[in-house]
Design goal:
about 25% strand, single chain, about 325 residues, Quinone Oxidoreductase, Chain A, domain 1, 2 domains, Rossmann fold, alpha/beta
């Protein structure tokens, strides 16, 4: 089979398509024929060596969907022929992947496998951000950075389902239109307008209840300033770079604010929680209550180009490899 592997950390060009043996499922595992793989910033971090990885060479990819073709001993959660998806399991940029069966979730008949691969990781992230990290309710105001990106579009839609008012930030007018179409009540083009001042204006000086920030360094200070007293900032990414060290006493000075850097693994630590979050996302997709915007579907061999476009912020929505 073919798989996209990393033999040394580096720029997108280190992604190499190798011919390797089809892996075999062990105890508790299932072999999945991958129909589609989602491309995420997390994959970039693995490729660049910013996250601890298995020994070289290793197969990239943390999100995929496909069909179970074989199961190992002691597997009773999936069967051969099941349509399934997984997230936070390394190795999806391949024709086949061995996945712990407990980490696989069923894909409803009404959801295409490409949509499942596009929505699962970021959809579950949006779910825990809006349901667990800072649970939103009617009357809350959510500030969503990178609102036209894959995660931002899903946070926007789910926040609206919960009754919150959504303020999105984007870099261009074209992305502003996409964010509006996803349901953002207000969209700020941060390259033209100061988003801190705009948030205060739109909320009559009160500020946002929660800020969901996947940008990091460039937005951090103003994100804190955009919060109302006792509001919360969730740092969910660092596309502009890491946030410099700061004095936690600032949180008190600015109004008893909350700050967290959450991760998906800790929010799907049990199968019950995994099925809750994945089930909600996939059922919303099936019912048409949310949609996933696929920016581009690329052949798996173009993984390096997909990483380059993602890092250059040239994508609107999600990139899929098939």
């Amino acid at each position: 089979m073919k798989a996209i592997r990393v033999h040394a950390y580096g720029e997108p060009g280190v992604l190499v398509e190798d011919e390797i043996d089809v892996p075999q499922p062990g105890r508790g595992d299932a072999l999945v024929q991958i129909a589609a793989s989602g491309v995420n910033y997390l994959d970039v971090q693995y490729r660049a060596g910013r996250i601890r990885t298995p020994p070289f060479p290793f197969t990239v990819g943390m999100e995929g969907a496909g069909v179970v073709t074989a199961i190992g001993p002691d597997v009773d959660t999936v069967r051969v022929g099941d349509r399934v998806a997984s997230a936070m399991v390394l190795g999806s940029y391949a024709e086949y992947a061995v996945v712990p069966a407990a980490r696989l979730v069923p894909v409803p008949d009404g959801v295409e496998l490409t949509s499942a691969a596009a929505a699962l990781l970021q959809g579950m992230t949006a779910h825990y951000l809006t349901h667990s990290t800072f649970p939103l309710k009617a009357g809350d105001v959510a500030l969503v950075h990178a609102a036209a990106g894959g995660l931002g579009l899903l946070v926007t839609q789910i926040a609206r389902l919960l009754g919150a008012t959504v303020i999105g930030t984007v870099g261009t007018e074209a992305k502003a239109r996409i964010a509006h179409e996803a349901g953002a009540h207000h969209v700020i083009v941060y390259t033209r307008d100061d988003f801190e001042a705009e948030v205060k204006r739109l909320t009559d000086g009160r500020g946002a209840s929660a800020v969901y920030d996947s940008v990091g360094r460039d937005t951090f200070d103003k994100s804190l300033n955009s919060l109302r007293p006792r509001g919360g900032l969730a740092l969910v990414g660092f596309s502009s770079g890491p946030v410099p060290p700061f004095d936690p006493a600032i949180l008190g000075v600015k109004g008893s604010l909350f700050l967290t850097r959450p991760g998906l693994n800790q929010h799907i630590a049990t199968r019950e929680e995994l099925l809750w979050r994945a089930g909600a996302v996939l059922q919303w997709l099936s019912a048409g209550e949310i949609s996933v915007r696929i920016d581009r579907v690329r052949p798996r061999a173009e993984a390096a180009a997909a990483h380059h476009a993602l890092e250059a912020r040239q994508t609107i929505g999600k990139t899929i490899l098939v």
